[in-house]
Sequence to fold (307 residues):
Amino acid sequence: MTIDAARNPHPIYFAGAFATGGLLTFMVHLNGELARYGNPLFSSWTAHGTGIIAAVILLLLIHRRDTPTRGNTPKAPLWAYFGGISGAATVILTSTAVNSPLGLSGTLALGLAGQVVFSAAADSWGLFGLPKRRLDTRDVAALGLVVTGAALIILFGRGAA
Amino acid sequence: MTVFVFLASLGGVLVGLSRQLNGRLSISTTPLIASFWNHAVGFAVLTCLGLFIGGLFPQRAAEAPWYAYLGGPIGVIFVAVGSWAIARIGAVNSALLINGGQMVTGVAFAYIRAVPASFWANASGIVLIVGGMMVSRGRRKVDRSQ
Fold:
């Protein structure tokens, strides 16, 4: 496994992760639009369906360049294919919570808290076959700053949104 | 209310779990293949669910603007990059940067669409997020000089 790479990562991984956060904003907006004309289940179902088509097109276009780094890594266990179930269940839970007294802000804030707690556990124990990363003081400080900043924006910043 | 608090937090846990599983799959395959399976398996589950409880073909669906259907293709890139990043920078850093990116662009988006918003909460939120990212990047510099 790429434990060395996890200890000494290139800045491009950080930039990539930050940029996909931006994609998420657009994705949530577009899927929300679709749910407005239908319902959350329809929106998620359609997004997964069009996603399959997009993934196949991308794989056909770049598959030859994007060769797997197999050989030194073992085959993926069966459970690794179930990320989609977890993702699909998220849509149902969050669309239920959004329509409760929690509203969008509460759902976003609690979802962020859930993500942070799970990620910290996943890193410290190396859950589900990914490299173990011990959290140090800097990680905790960075986490505290980002979570506080996000909480400010979610709870007080975007007004009626 | 407690139930909804639990559901919303569990939603966050499932986001992390999904990223973890897709990241593991991408190590043995590629991030794009992991993203494909994520969407294929999710689609199968949602199809079963939709056939069971109904609502897969809402009447007004055809009225939605064409660009509303672009969420799926964007999701493919989102899942692929997430799987690529988590195997390299870990779950905490991935969650931190992805959420930070979402917040910063979300604020920009709210201003572009002229959604009423509190300037000071947004500005101090962004300063804290960028500060947190710089703290997290600081260690990387030390690491590389070792």
